[in-house]
Design brief:
By secondary structure, the chain is an alpha+beta fold. It has helices spanning about 10-20, 60-75, 105-110, 115-135, 150-155, 170-175, 215-225, 230-240, 250-270, 280-295, and strands at about 25-30, 40-45, 50-55, 85-90, 95-100, 105, 180-185, 195, 200-205, 210-215.
Length: about 300
């Protein structure tokens, strides 16, 4: 049974020094306060920059193992770079390390991007999603070919308070009726999309939600975390990439589902991990969503 880590900065930095000390010298290490499922540390070395992640609870430890396994399976299969994850262990607690992919989260560049920048970014995103969605399901290890609904239902077990699985109904129906299930990223939101200084997508991160589902799941996840211009731009770019229209009703249903999932997720984080910095836009969305269930 896996164990997990406490936010003990001294211990975590010591583990980092021991991990890379034979091949590189650590110049600096800083906790990224927006890490949700993991205690994430940005490490600057003399030769390389690294990202270390230490899971916060048992379920998140299992997610980390899944993330590392999937990233290894998908290496070289997409044009856009994904992390080359290395799974490690300290006292039966899994943690991961990978070379840092240059770039900033899309959330940090959205407002400054021009129309031309946005067009290029969403074209890269659409290319990545199309390549991922067309990979054979057999690309994934048998152990992680669960449906997105099954994964989200498992994730619900970590929430504090009441979680109503009835709000998954539309996803359940969508997955029952899909003609050609595919591999989905599962958490394709702007925080997991890295953009370089040239306004090209430099990498996609966080594959712990990867599941088998309908391709609209990824588009809906992004649309629900973006303004209308960015959401519409991705829909159009994905349609152009695949020469097929998206089903906007399916996208809307996914948006609604993830609003509920995220509202409950924020509720859990605020209760159990108050040290985590939750982006203001996410807090605002969660507060608005909460009103639906407290009136």
């Amino acid at each position: 049974m896996y164990q997990f880590f406490e936010p003990n900065e001294t211990e975590l930095k010591q583990i980092i020094y021991e991990t890379i000390g034979k091949n590189d010298s650590v110049i600096g290490a800083q906790i990224i306060p927006t890490g949700w499922t993991n205690i994430t540390i940005d490490v600057h070395g003399e030769l390389h920059d690294y990202i270390f992640r230490f899971p916060r609870n048992l379920f998140f430890a299992e997610m980390m193992v899944k993330d590392c396994t999937i990233c290894q399976c998908l290496q070289g299969k997409t044009t856009i770079r994904i992390p080359d994850m290395h799974l490690m262990s300290h006292q039966n607690r899994p943690f991961s390390m990978h070379y840092k992919i240059p770039g900033r989260a899309l959330t940090q560049v959205m407002d400054a991007a021009t129309d031309v920048d946005r067009e290029q970014i969403v074209a890269d995103m659409a290319l990545f999603l199309s390549e991922l969605h067309h990979l054979p399901i057999e690309t994934l290890p048998t152990a992680v070919t669960e449906s997105l609904n099954d994964f989200l239902s498992g994730l619900a077990t970590v929430h504090q308070g009441q979680y109503d699985l009835d709000y998954h109904h539309n996803l359940v129906v969508l997955e029952q009726q899909m003609k050609k299930p595919c591999i989905v990223h599962g958490d394709f939101n702007p925080g997991n999309i890295l953009v370089g200084d040239d306004y090209r997508v430099s990498g996609i991160i966080d594959f712990s939600f990867v599941s088998v589902s309908d391709p609209h799941a990824d588009i809906g996840r992004f649309v629900g975390r973006s303004d209308s211009e960015w959401g519409e731009a991705l829909i159009e770019a994905y349609q152009a990439q695949n020469h097929k229209l998206c089903d906007r009703e399916k996208i809307r249903q996914i948006v609604d589902l993830f609003k509920y999932v995220e509202y409950k997720y924020v509720e859990y984080m605020q209760h159990s991990h108050p040290e985590i910095v939750i982006p203001p836009a996410v807090l605002k969305m969660a507060a608005a969503e909460k009103q639906k269930y407290t009136i």
